[in-house]
Write a structure and sequence with these properties.
Blueprint (H helix, E strand, L loop, with lengths): L2 E4 L9 H10 L5 E6 L11 H7 L7 E6 L7 H7 L3 E5 L6 H10 L4 E5 L17 E5 L14 H14 L6 E5 L6 H8 L3 E4 L1 H4 L4 H6 L10
Parallel strand pairs: 1-8, 2-3, 3-4, 4-5, 5-6, 6-7, 7-8
Helix pairs in contact: 2-3, 5-6
Bound molecules: ribulose-5-phosphate (5RP) and fe (ii) ion.
The site of fe (ii) ion has 6 residues, from β2.
Length: 221
């Protein structure tokens, strides 16, 4: 499976609807929405009002990545605003199991994200409670950073762990520094969902940029 999720962190915020329509026409599968609070990460982006504002402008699922402290306080609000799936950071949740169930109680698939320095052990005891695990391939907070090469080993280990635990249907998402060069490596390691911000929005031909991230697409990049 190869799901491409352009991150609107790299879109033009003054014409978000237009940029989202452009990647939707270009073959994107999901729209990735980076929510940053200026505390958990050193940057500030969108809140639920922006999710609500973009919701009518696309048919694609809104994949909401919460890089915020106390995500349990905001899960219901983002769900009501139109999020189609919500991912919280393990590092931001004292009661991760409870927060994952709060997301599922909103009727949404629950995701957990791990920073590059966070071991896979952080999700070992919630594998039955997640639908997606997001392996950060950069330190969260900014677009346009360099892919951390060790991330491929982490994805490979996670795929093995999911298989051993009979949870192979859990999606593995990767986020940060994904481009035509890193996409094949990380897909081969077992990633299902590729988030890409700058690699898609820095190109005028978004369809070609999305195609370049798909299997075989790198040849035409
Ligand atoms: O979560 C994120 C950053 O914290 C973004 O989704 C990510 O950085 C995408 O940007 P790029 O593809 O340019 O690295
Ligand atoms: Fe993200």
């Amino acid at each position: 499976m190869s799901i491409i999720a352009p991150s609107i962190l790299s879109a033009d915020f003054a014409k978000l609807a237009e940029d989202i329509a452009h990647v939707e026409r270009g073959g994107a599968d999901w729209i990735h929405v980076d929510v940053m609070d200026g505390h958990f990460v050193p940057n500030l982006t969108f809140g639920p009002m922006v999710v609500q504002a973009v919701r009518p402008h696309t048919q694609l699922p809104l994949d909401v990545h919460l890089m915020i402290e106390h995500p349990e306080r905001s899960v219901a609000e983002f769900a009501q605003a139109g999020a189609d799936r919500i991912t919280v950071h393990a590092e931001a949740c004292v009661h991760l199991h409870r927060v994952l169930h709060m997301i599922r109680e909103q009727g949404l698939p629950a995701g957990v994200a791990l920073n590059p320095a966070t071991p896979l052990a952080a999700v070992e005891h919630v594998l039955d409670d997640v639908d997606l695990i997001l392996i950060m391939t950069v330190n969260p907070g900014f677009g346009g950073q360099q892919f951390i090469p060790h991330s491929a080993d982490k994805v490979r280990q996670l795929r093995r762990l999911l298989r051993e635990r009979g949870r192979d249907e859990v999606l593995i998402e990767v986020d940060g520094g994904i481009n035509a060069e890193t996409a094949p490596l990380i897909r081969a390691a077992g990633a299902d969902v590729l988030v890409a911000g700058s690699a898609v929005f820095s190109e005028t031909d978004r369809a070609a940029a999305i195609h370049a991230l798909r299997p075989g697409g790198e040849a035409s990049a």
